[in-house]
Each structure stands twice: as C-alpha cells, then as structure tokens.
Amino acid sequence: MTDHPHEKKEDVSRRRFVEVCIGGMGVASAGAVAYPVVSFLGRPASLEGAQTIRIPIDELNEDQARYIDWQGQQVAVIFTGRVPKAFSASCSHLGCLVAWDNVKHVFHCPCHGAVFDDQGNPVSGPVSKPLTAIPFQEADGHIVIG
Question: Is 86 exposed, middle or buried (0-12, 13-18, 19+ CB in 10 A)?
C-alpha cells in the first residue's frame, strides 16, 4: 500500500477542522451556561433611579400586604394596627421572596422556613438579620416611597 502525500494532508486538515469545531462548540456551550448565571447574579442597572411610588393609604386594607416593584426590588407594604410599614420582600437569609400571612401577622420565607414579625424582626428559622426597612413618608393621604 502506497501512502500518498496528498491523502495525509487531507487527514491533517480534516482533523484540524474537527478539533476547531469541537472547541467552538465547547466555547459556545460554556457561554450558553455562563451568560444566564452572570446575568442573574449581576444587579440590574436601575432605569428609573429617581422612581417614586405613591400608594393611597385608603387603598390599603388592615392586615393585608401589597407588593410593589421599586428600583428593581420587590417591596412589601403592610398596614397593621392602622400603621403602614414597608420592607424589602427579600429574605435577609438568602434573598427568597417572603410572603405575608395576614392571619398570623408574620412574613414567611418559603425557601428555608424563616419567619419575621410585622416589624421585620426575625422570629424563627435560619435567619439572624431583620428584613430591610424601606424608608417612606406619608403625604397627602399617600405612602410615598422614593
């Protein structure tokens, strides 16, 4: 059997082509996995830096929560004892969104079972820090955030 120099050159170029294709697919796969992770972990730039939210106090029901989006975060506004309060709805443990229980007057974290009272203080679970209070003002019958 005679080796032709032309056939060896084709084998090398095919091999190189396959190696480049496999490498390219590896890079594309890594990018397809990394992009959503990096996008999720990165804080979004606020498009509305001076966003102001006005909630009419007469629209709030006693012991009910109202969730709003403010500057890229969820905020829970509650009205207990005829007093409005606003907290970040992100659990201070790992950032899961807390849910208001209007019967027990507590926030529950569905991820790890943390419980916070209506002042945002931790009651039970694997949490030691309170919910972040969101500053607001009361003006003209409204709660004004921002």
Answer: buried
> For domain 53-145, is the CATH number 2.102.10.10?
yes
Question: Domain residues of the chain, as ranges?
Answer: 1-42, 53-145
Q: In what order do the strands lie in the sheet with 73-80?
A: 65-70, 73-80, 83-88
Task: Return d(Cα 85, Cα 89) in angstroms, integer.
Answer: 12
pLDDT 10s digits, 80-106:
888 899 999 999 888 889 999 989 999
Is 105 in contact with 63 (CB distance < 8 Å)? yes
Cα 78-82-87 angle, rounded to 5 deg: 25
Phi/psi-derived region of residue 63, left when phi > 0, alpha when psi is between -120 and 50, beta in every other case: left
Residue 104 has, within 13 A of its CA and on its CB side, a CA count of 10
